[in-house]
Design goal:
Elements lengths: L1 E4 L2 E4 L4 E7 L8 E7 L6 E6 L5 E3 L7 E6 L4 E6 L8 E8 L15 E2 L3 E6 L1
Parallel strand pairs: 2-11
Antiparallel strand pairs: 1-3, 3-8, 4-5, 4-9, 5-6, 7-8, 9-10, 9-11
Length: 123
Amino acid sequence: QLQASGGGLVQAGGSLRLSCAASGLTLSNYRVGWFRQAPGKEREFVAVISQSDRTYYADSVKGRFTISRDNAKNTVHLQLNSLKPEDTAVYYCAAERIYGTTWRTSPADFGSWGQGTQVTVSS
């Protein structure tokens, strides 16, 4: 089970740190991704981290967001910097035991999901 937290209301240019905590599974064995869904839009890929800590980002967040692991706490974080109003969405973390060098960024590629945390960026 995954639990996402850390969302909130922030002004444009501000920062937030999202966390995805796991219970019943060891996140270090999983590829963990973050996705987001804005009202009326499809869920979209944001970032992913592999079991070996390789990372991959959507172009829209590259250079502003950072995904990282804390294996001791069985948690994956997403640091959101330089936030923009268009980053407003519900953010979800997801995990899957995917291996290999090909990045899979579709929500359908991930089987375990957290409940989502709201990020709202005001202009």
